[in-house]
Description:
Blueprint: H1 14-18, E1 34-42, E2 50-57, E3 61-67, E4 75-85, E5 88-96, E6 99-111, E7 114-117, H2 119-123, E8 131-134, E9 155-163, E10 168-170, E11 177-181, E12 186-191, E13 194-203, E14 206-214, H3 225-232, E15 235-241, E16 244-249, E17 255-260
Antiparallel strand pairs: 1-2, 1-8, 2-3, 3-4, 4-5, 5-6, 6-7, 7-8, 9-10, 9-11, 9-17, 11-12, 12-13, 13-14, 15-16, 16-17
Amino acid sequence: xxxxxxxxxxxxxxxxxxxxxxxxxxxxxxxxxxxxxxxxxxxxxxxxxxxxxxxxxxxxxxxxxxxxxxxxxxxxxxxxxxxxxxxxxxxxxxxxxxxxxxxxxxxxxxxxxxxxxxxxxxxxxxxxxxxxxxxxxxxxxxxxxxxxxxxxxxxxxxxxxxxxxxxxxxxxxxxxxxxxxxxxxxxxxxxxxxxxxxxxxxxxxxxxxxxxxxxxxxxxxxxxxxxxxxxxxxxxxxxxxxxxxxxxxxxxxxxxxxxxxx
Length: 262
C-alpha cells in the first residue's frame, strides 16, 4: 500500500505553511490564484547567483522560475505542489518552458517564512542548498481563492489515468474503475471486477478515502483493481478543473485523473 499522511485531514493548517493568503499575482491563466510567493538566490559555481521565484497556487499548481542572469530569458518549470505536512512541501515539476518533461520532485522544509531544500534537493543547489523567503504583500484580495473553500466533488467519477515520477498509466476502460462520492461521506467504488464501499472526508483541499469493504474476485490478467484501491486509500488532496477531478497521492504516488460521469 502506498504511504498515507492522515494529518493532512486538517489542511486548514496549510495557513501555517503558506501564511495568510496573499494578493492575486497574475502570471498566466494557470497561476492567476497565487496564494504564496517565495524568492531567493541559488549559488553558482561560476558567475552570479541565479534568482529563484516560487509561486504556489490555491488549486495545487506551482511555478518555479530561475533567472540565470546570463542575458537570456528565465527558465520556468511548472507542475504541482503537495503539502506533506505543516513543516514540509514537495514540488512536482512536470513541464519546462511549457514542454512536458519526466516528472521530478523537489523537497523543502518550512521554517517560519523560509523554505529550505532538504536531502537530495539541497545537493542540486550546492553545499548550502536553496533557501527561499516568502515575500511580503498587502491584505488578501476578495478574489483570492480561500484555502478552506468547499468544492462540489459529489457524483460519480471514472478513472482515466495516473501520472507519477515512476510511471504514467492510461486506463483503457475507465468505466470499470469508478469512484462515487456521495453526500454524507459515503463512497462507492468499482475496481474492475470488484465492487466495494467505504467513507471519505474532505477538509478544504484535503481528502481521505477509506475503502472498508471490497470484493475478492480474481480479475483478468492486467487488471488494476488492487492498485486502484490502494491509490484511493493514499489520497491526500484533491482539486477540480471543469469536469475533471485530480487526486494527489501521498509521497511520490503521483496524481490520479478522473472524469465526471454524472
